[in-house]
From TrEMBL:
<dbReference type="GO" id="GO:0005783">
    <property type="term" value="C:endoplasmic reticulum"/>
</dbReference>
<dbReference type="GO" id="GO:0003714">
    <property type="term" value="F:transcription corepressor activity"/>
</dbReference>
<feature type="binding site">
    <location>
        <position position="166"/>
    </location>
    <ligand>
        <name>Zn(2+)</name>
    </ligand>
</feature>
<keyword id="KW-0779">Telomere</keyword>
<dbReference type="GO" id="GO:0140765">
    <property type="term" value="F:histone H3K56 deacetylase activity, NAD-dependent"/>
</dbReference>
<dbReference type="InterPro" id="IPR029035">
    <property type="entry name" value="DHS-like_NAD/FAD-binding_dom"/>
</dbReference>
<keyword id="KW-0328">Glycosyltransferase</keyword>
<comment type="subunit">
    <text>Homodimer; binds to nucleosomes and DNA ends as a homodimer. Interacts with RELA; interferes with RELA binding to target DNA. Interacts with SMARCA5; promoting recruitment of SMARCA5/SNF2H to double-strand breaks (DSBs) sites. Interacts with the mTORC2 complex; preventing the ability of SIRT6 to deacetylate FOXO1. Interacts with the CLOCK-BMAL1 complex; recruited by the CLOCK-BMAL1 complex to regulate expression of clock-controlled genes. Interacts with CSNK2A2; preventing CSNK2A2 localization to the nucleus.</text>
</comment>
<feature type="binding site">
    <location>
        <position position="144"/>
    </location>
    <ligand>
        <name>Zn(2+)</name>
    </ligand>
</feature>
<dbReference type="GO" id="GO:0000122">
    <property type="term" value="P:negative regulation of transcription by RNA polymerase II"/>
</dbReference>
<dbReference type="GO" id="GO:0003723">
    <property type="term" value="F:RNA binding"/>
</dbReference>
<keyword id="KW-0007">Acetylation</keyword>
<keyword id="KW-0539">Nucleus</keyword>
<keyword id="KW-0808">Transferase</keyword>
<dbReference type="GO" id="GO:0005634">
    <property type="term" value="C:nucleus"/>
</dbReference>
<keyword id="KW-0156">Chromatin regulator</keyword>
<keyword id="KW-0217">Developmental protein</keyword>
Length: 362
């Protein structure tokens, strides 16, 4: 559960703006905005979606900063309410709608801050998905990089050893790799995974439309990735009940429950939301998904991890300021690194990939 996930993180002094009031568009305005979003998607050639904890609240996993979020309740001295476990949670209508959008070719890439594994378990292809903060069901070998997908949460957080060993056989029939396995869940100061961050960065720079669902965009660098699309002349649509850090940059803001918005959107696009038939893992968009087997050594066979160039630099640290900034000002302060500076090692220290929180501008 997200409550247990939050409890497993290291203490952190500033968790951002929690418990902000939610806004709801009137029914007529909501219909108009969803129709506009449908037109934006039809007219776009490359659409990237970004998801946060708000897309899983309808299935019983609480978010963090909503009115009943984990950290909001913590600030009030109350215990958060949860209605399910990560293993028992089923993908929401939003998860399944995103799967249908990918299958139709309307969605080119998906970037998620969620660790609940529901995108993966819905059957969304992992080669088109960046899970920037990890996945509760995935552990990986620290020696060869192989990832294993389990049918239950792996049991540790913060990139710690899980107590299991890699069984990948070495070449020419030699003994198995035997590298230690660790979880993939990031703590506050952990660096984002190179492969996922680099793929997300590239996808956002290539997109002409970014759509964010259920995220306040407060965590860096994840929350700043949609602005890379804006920087390159693309458009930005934000779907969230609470204010987000980048509302001022949005071409369209929709205030409504994400499940309702996505259901209406799919009708406008003439697409059906598929039924969920149980956990599946789909490594590639080129293959048919396979049902997750309930065995101790259930695993995926992801693309081999290849050496990556030094990742593009992202602004690091927590910032408090007032007033609005333009995209150009955001770029000037480092939210959008230039290609020249991004490729220089001295300007892109490992800390730039760390998951950091940047509060909403008041």
């Amino acid at each position: 559960m997200s409550a247990n996930y939050a409890a497993g993180l290291s203490p952190y002094p500033d968790k951002g703006k929690c418990g902000l009031p939610e806004n709801f568009d009137p029914p007529e305005e909501l219909e108009r905005k969803v129709l506009e979003l449908a037109e934006m998607i039809r007219n776009a050639r490359n659409v990237v979606f970004h998801t946060g904890a708000g897309i899983s609240t309808s299935v019983g996993i609480p978010d963090f900063r909503g009115p009943n979020g984990v950290w909001t309740m913590e600030e009030k001295g109350l215990a958060p309410r949860f209605d399910t476990t990560f293993e028992e949670a089923r993908p929401s209508r939003t998860h399944l709608a995103l799967l249908a959008l990918q299958r139709s070719g309307s969605l080119k890439y998906l970037v998620s801050q969620n660790v609940d594994g529901l995108h993966m378990r819905s059957g969304f292809p992992r080669d088109l998905l960046s899970e920037l903060h990890g996945n509760m069901f995935v552990e990986e070998c620290i020696k060869c990089g192989k990832q294993y997908v389990r049918d239950a949460v792996v049991g540790t957080m913060g990139l710690k050893p899980t107590g299991r060993l890699c069984d990948v056989p070495k070449s020419r029939g030699l003994r198995a790799c035997r590298g230690k396995l660790r979880d993939t869940i990031l703590d506050w100061e952990d660096s984002l995974p190179d492969r996922d961050l680099n793929r997300a960065d590239e996808a956002c720079r290539s997109a002409d439309l970014a759509v964010t669902l259920g995220t306040s965009l407060q965590i860096k660098p994840s929350g700043n990735l949609p602005l890379l699309t804006k920087r390159n002349g693309g458009r930005l649509a934000i779907v969230n009940l609470q204010p987000t850090k980048h509302d001022k940059h949005a071409d369209l803001r929709i205030h409504g429950y994400v499940d309702d918005v996505m259901t209406k959107l799919m009708k406008h696009l003439g697409l059906e939301i598929p039924e969920w038939e149980g956990p599946v893992v789909r490594d590639s968009s080129e293959v048919v998904p396979e049902t997750v087997k309930r065995e101790a050594k259930t695993e995926t066979k992801p693309q081999p991890v290849t050496p990556k160039p030094e990742p593009r630099c992202h602004q690091n640290g927590t910032r408090h300021d007032n007033g609005e900034k333009t995209v150009e000002q955001e770029e000037a302060r480092g939210a959008f690194p230039s290609p020249e500076s991004a490729d220089t090692k001295q300007d892109c220290q490992p800390a730039s990939k760390r998951a950091k929180l940047e509060p909403l501008v008041a």
